[in-house]
Design goal:
seven-stranded mixed sheet, four-stranded antiparallel sheet, 14 strands, disordered N terminus
C-alpha cells in the first residue's frame, strides 16, 4: 500500500461507532443497521468495513489490495469474498438510492453519490458533468472479460487502447417523451458500460466528433410513431466510417421510461464480449463487418435463442478472420452452444472445426481465461473434473475474467455444490451486471438456495431490461423445480407465457396429489408421452417422494440418455447422438432427496461422471449440509 497513514483514519468511524450517511441511507456502525426511507437491513461486519472504506474515499479509487489490508487485516482472501461484499453493497445502493459502487477495471472500486444526496460535495464540477444527460464522453475499452490492452498475447503484442465517443442522441420530433429518452440514453450508456467494466474518461462534447483520439463514435436517434417509441443506435469506425455495431429498439409509450436503460444494457452486454475485437490486433482493427457478425451472433444466442443462425454467422466470421482470437473463440463457443441444433450428420465436422478454432484462440490469446473454457463446451459434459480444472486454470490466468466464474458456477451447480455455485454466479454477475443470461442465472440460483426476495429483485430487473427474452422466466421455474418448491412454481406459472415448458393444469393436479400423498393421482398426472419438460421434472421427483421409484427412474432415463452408454461406446459419438439432457442438478438438488435413497441413484451418478467427481473433490451440499445416508457410500464401493 502506498498511502498507509491516511487510511488509518478512514476506519475511525467504525471504531468510534458514529452514525454516518451515504446516499439515501443512514449507517449505524454500533448496530450495523442501514436505514432509509421505507426500509432497513443489518449489514454483515465485513460489508460494513468495505462500505466505510469506500465512503471515506468518496470519488477515489480504492484498490482490492487496500480493501484486503483494511477490511481483512491483510489476510489472504479470495476474489469471491471481496466480490460478495461489493455485491451486497450494490444491493443496498439499489434499495436506499443516492449512491453506487463503480468498478474500476483491474484496479478496484469507487463510491459515487448521485446529485442532491448527502455527501455529494466531494465531487468536482468535472465529475458532476459525467452524469449529465446528453454529454459526450470517451470510452476506453478496458473490457473486464478480456482486458486486452493490459494483457498482450504472446503472438499479438500489446495493442493500443481504442476510445469510443458517445455523442448526444437525436430526438426526431418535438414531443417531450422523445426528448426525454434521447437525453437519458447517453447517461444510461455511461453508467452501464462503466459498471460492466469499461473505463470512462471525460471528453469535451463540442470536440467529440473531431477528437483525434477517438476510434469509434457511438450515436443514436429516437422517434415516436403513435403509441410506440423507437430508437436506433450505432457504433461507427471513425477510421473508415463502417458500422461496427447497430441495434434497433421499440417500446410502447407506457414502457418508454425503460428504453434508455434497455439501450445501455444491450450495448454493455454485447460489447462485453465482442468489444475485445477493438484491441486484438496492434496493427489494425478487426474488420467492422466481422465485428458486427460476432456481436450479432452472441446476441442471437443469448437474447433471442437463434443458436443455429448464430453458429453460421460465427463460422463465417472465423473464416474471414483466422488470426483474430475473438473470432476463433466465438466460433468454438457458438458451436458448443448450438450442437443440438446442428444436423446430426454435420456435427462431427462442426466439432472438429471448432476444436481447431479453440486451439487457435489459445495460441493467440493464452492470457485470456475464456480460451480455457472451450474444451468442456466441445466434449461430453460427463468430464466434470477436467472441466473444473480448466475453469480454475482460466481464473488463475485471468482473475478478472467476466465469463470464467459463470462457467465454474455451472459446474458446481451440476455437482450439487449450490452455495459455492451461487457465490461464483454472483461474481460473474458483478463483472457483467446487465447480461440477461447472468441476471437469469442469479434468479435461478437464488430460487434454488431459497432466497425468494433476492430472486424477485433480479427477475424484475431482467424483465425490465430484456422484456423480449424468456430466459429469466425459465431460470426461475427451473430453480423452483430443483429446489422442490412446487407451490411457488404453480403460483408463478402463466399458461399464456409458459405453455411450451409446462402444462399448468397437469402441474396443479400433480401438486395436489403430492400434498394429499395420493400416488394414484400423481401417476395419472404423469401418464402419457406428451408431458412437457418441467412437468417431467416435477413428476420425476414427486413420484419418488410418493414411493414410485420405478416411475421416477424411468423419467430419469429420458433426461440422462448417457445412462444407456456402454463403457466401450465412443464418447464423442455417443455425446453427438445425445447432446441434450445433462442437467444433473435435477439429481443433486433438494427436490431429488427421495431419489437418492434408491440404489440406482449411484449407478446413474457413476454414468454421468458425478461419482468420479465426488470421489476427488468436495462432496455435494446434500452431504456437507444435510448428511444424507447415501453419502457414506459415495466414497466407497457402491456395487
Amino acid at each position: 500500500m502506498n498511502r498507509p497513514a491516511p487510511w488509518r483514519s478512514i476506519m475511525a468511524t467504525v471504531v468510534d461507532r458514529q452514525p454516518f450517511r451515504v446516499g439515501g441511507a443512514t449507517i449505524d456502525p454500533a448496530s450495523r443497521d442501514a436505514s432509509w426511507a421505507g426500509g432497513k437491513e443489518r449489514l454483515q461486519p465485513q460489508t460494513l468495513k468495505v462500505l466505510t472504506v469506500l465512503v471515506g474515499q468518496r470519488g477515489e479509487v480504492v484498490t482490492r489490495e487496500e480493501l484486503v489490508q483494511l477490511c481483512w487485516d491483510g489476510r489472504a482472501v479470495s476474489d469471491d469474498v471481496i466480490n460478495r461484499a461489493v455485491l451486497l453493497l450494490r444491493h443496498l445502493a439499489e434499495r436506499a438510492g443516492g449512491f453506487q459502487i463503480e468498478t474500476v477495471p483491474r484496479t478496484g472500486y469507487r463510491l459515487i453519490e448521485n446529485g442532491g444526496s448527502a455527501g455529494a460535495s466531494w465531487r468536482s464540477s468535472k465529475r458532476k458533468a459525467i452524469a449529465g444527460a446528453g454529454l459526450a464522453f470517451v470510452l476506453v475499452a478496458g473490457i473486464s472479460a478480456w482486458a486486452l490492452s493490459e494483457r498482450p498475447s504472446a503472438s499479438q503484442g500489446r495493442p493500443p487502447a481504442p476510445s469510443v465517443s458517445v455523442v448526444p442522441f437525436t430526438a426526431e420530433g418535438g414531443d417531450s417523451l422523445t426528448r426525454q429518452v434521447a437525453e437519458s440514453a447517453p447517461a444510461s450508456l455511461t453508467r452501464m458500460l462503466s459498471q460492466s467494466g469499461f473505463a470512462i474518461v471525460r471528453d469535451d462534447p463540442a470536440a467529440a466528433r473531431d477528437n483525434s483520439k477517438t476510434d469509434y463514435i457511438f450515436s443514436g436517434s429516437v422517434r415516436r410513431t403513435g403509441n410506440v417509441v423507437d430508437a436506433s443506435v450505432q457504433l461507427v469506425s471513425k477510421r473508415d466510417g463502417r458500422i461496427a455495431f447497430s441495434h434497433d429498439f421499440s417500446a410502447p409509450i407506457d414502457r418508454a421510461g425503460d428504453l434508455a436503460d434497455r439501450i445501455g444494457a444491450t450495448a454493455a452486454a454485447e460489447l462485453a464480449w465482442t468489444g475485445a475485437e477493438m484491441v486484438l490486433d496492434p496493427r489494425e482493427h478487426l474488420d467492422p463487418q466481422v465485428a458486427n457478425e460476432l456481436m450479432t451472433s452472441i446476441n442471437l444466442t443469448n437474447e433471442e435463442g437463434q443458436s443455429i443462425r448464430a453458429y453460421q454467422m460465427a463460422r463465417h466470421a472465423a473464416a474471414m478472420a483466422p488470426d483474430a482470437a475473438i473470432a476463433q473463440l466465438t466460433l468454438a463457443v457458438q458451436t458448443g452452444f448450438s450442437i443440438s441444433a446442428i444436423p446430426r450428420e454435420e456435427r462431427p465436422e462442426a466439432i472438429a472445426v471448432a476444436r481447431r478454432s479453440a486451439a487457435r484462440a489459445r495460441a493467440l490469446a493464452p492470457e485470456f481465461g475464456d480460451v480455457y473454457l472451450t474444451r468442456c463446451l466441445l466434449r461430453s459434459p460427463v468430464r466434470l473434473s477436467e472441466c473444473e480444472a480448466d475453469g480454475r486454470h482460466g481464473l488463475e490466468v485471468d482473475p478478472r475474467s467476466s465469463f470464467v466464474p459463470g462457467f465454474l458456477s455451472d459446474i458446481l451447480y451440476a455437482a450439487g455444490r449450490e452455495d459455492e455455485s451461487l457465490e461464483l454466479a454472483s461474481q460473474a454477475w458483478a463483472n457483467d451486471p446487465y447480461k440477461s443470461a447472468k441476471l437469469a442465472r442469479m434468479v435461478q440460483m437464488l430460487e434454488l438456495t431459497g432466497d425468494r426476495a433476492g430472486a424477485d429483485r433480479y427477475f424484475k430487473e431482467a424483465v425490465r431490461l430484456w422484456p423480449d427474452t424468456y430466459r429469466p422466466r425459465a431460470g426461475r421455474l427451473l430453480g423452483l423445480a430443483v429446489r422442490g418448491d412446487y407451490d411457488a412454481m404453480e403460483a408463478f406459472v402463466d399458461p399464456a407465457i409458459d405453455a411450451e415448458k409446462v402444462d399448468k393444469v397437469r402441474l396443479s393436479a400433480l401438486n395436489s396429489a403430492r400434498r394429499k400423498r395420493d400416488l394414484a393421482a400423481a401417476e395419472q398426472a404423469c401418464a402419457g408421452n406428451s408431458l412437457r419438460y418441467l412437468n417431467k421434472v416435477v413428476c420425476m421427483t414427486v413420484l419418488a417422494d410418493l414411493g414410485d421409484n420405478d416411475g421416477s427412474f424411468a423419467i430419469a432415463s429420458d433426461f440422462f440418455p448417457v445412462l444407456g452408454a456402454a463403457k466401450s461406446v465412443n464418447e464423442d459419438a455417443f455425446w453427438l447422438d445425445h447432446p441434450d439432457g445433462y442437467d444433473t442438478a435435477l439429481l443433486t438438488g433438494p427436490a431429488a432427496r427421495a431419489m437418492r435413497t434408491d440404489p440406482r441413484f449411484l449407478n446413474l451418478a457413476d454414468r454421468l461422471g458425478l461419482l468420479a467427481y465426488w470421489r476427488s473433490h468436495p462432496l455435494p451440499d446434500f452431504c456437507v449440509k444435510a448428511h444424507e445416508p447415501v453419502c457414506s457410500r459415495i466414497r466407497g464401493n457402491f456395487s
